[in-house]
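Handout, page 2. Input:
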Amino acid sequence: MAAKFCTSCGAPLVEGDHFCTSCGEPIDGTTAPPPAVPPPIVPPPDVPPPVLPPPPAPMSPGGPPPITAMPPTAPGPDGAGRSRVPLWVAVGVLAGLVVVLGVLLVVRSDGDGDDQRVAATTTSLPRTTSTTTSTTTTRPPTTTAPPTTAPPATVAPTPDRSEEAIDDVAARMCDTTYITEYTSEEIDTELWRVDVHIVLDSGEWWAHFDVDYATEFGPEIRPADDVSGEMLC
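Output:
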């Protein structure tokens, strides 16, 4: 069966499809489904804006704020045009104005009294002239003694224990028949290395021993390897 292609976008079609899976174009005269109707948009409910009170009138520095007179309203037959301001509110406003006026008068009177007291207590003080006498003292020159240099410390030389180390190793050897030579050298403070030359029928080799004289109970002889340790008794 020959493959079918969409006549609108050219995409391959599958047997049994009524619409193109790529562009949605109907196949073989199939009517396209109607588009989905979006749900109606419900406008939000009308919320009245908040009513803000009018800003208070600024107070002038020289006195109380001006009182704005309300326009008179003509009363109706049933009294609907009368002012709705309660009587106690008007009395409170008048009392506040009286208190502000009293405070301003007290502050002004106190300021005038302070100025009068300061002017009354101000007296002129006599000026005094002080004379300062400067004295100059000449110090004699000081003599600095030359620095003294301590003599260098004397280090006691390490005693030569080369012969003593050889004798100590020879005293510990089990068999000295095959020993042909002893050598010794100091490798550290109070530590000597003794090398022993041994000649056998099978060959010759060197045994090595460390002699430590810094121990508490006399010299300590330590073989450098296991073969050298077999030579000690």
